[in-house]
Design brief:
Layout (H helix, E strand, L loop, with lengths): L2 H4 L7 H13 L5 H8 L7 H14 L2 E4 L4 E4 L12 E7 L5 E4 L2 H13 L7 E7 L2 H4 L1
Parallel strand pairs: 3-5
Antiparallel strand pairs: 1-2, 3-4
Helix pairs in contact: 2-4, 3-4
């Protein structure tokens, strides 16, 4: 079962479910104001409502914030949101906007060696690799 369909099993609020559905239908990263525009007719009146709901969904492990785009995307991996996985990696196409979440295991090993050497304990890590997806390279 995918992370996207698994969210229905949790006790999400109505607003959380609406934001999840909006992000899922979009299939690409969306900014908070775009989400607000999509949900105005469903009771969302202010940006703060969207930001609070997104923050809650991030804490639940269902949504990621793409820092470089200032946008949000539905989690694509089963391991997200667990205490063991506070790290995320993404490939982001600069042409079409496709954002694909990557398993973080390979990158995490190399980063962990460096962080151990520097005696630094991370609480969160997001790696965003920007470029062109296969389809846009043609």
């Amino acid at each position: 079962m995918s992370k996207i369909s698994a969210h229905n099993k949790h006790d999400l609020t109505k607003k959380q479910s609406q934001v999840m559905e909006t992000l899922t239908k979009a299939g690409r990263p969306l900014g908070a104001y775009t989400i607000l525009d999509e949900l105005r007719d469903d009771g969302f009146k202010a940006p703060l409502q969207v930001y609070r709901t997104l923050d809650q969904l991030i804490l639940l492990g269902f949504v990621h914030r793409l820092e470089s785009l200032n946008a949000y995307i539905v989690c694509q991996l089963e391991t997200c949101g667990s205490a063991d996985n506070l790290n995320t990696s993404f490939m982001i196409c600069e042409h079409c906007g496709l954002a694909q979440e990557l398993p973080h295991i390979a990158v995490e090993g190399a980063v962990r060696i460096l962080l151990d050497k520097l005696n630094f304990t991370p609480t969160k890590s997001t790696i965003e690799i920007r470029g062109l997806c296969n389809a846009c390279q043609s």
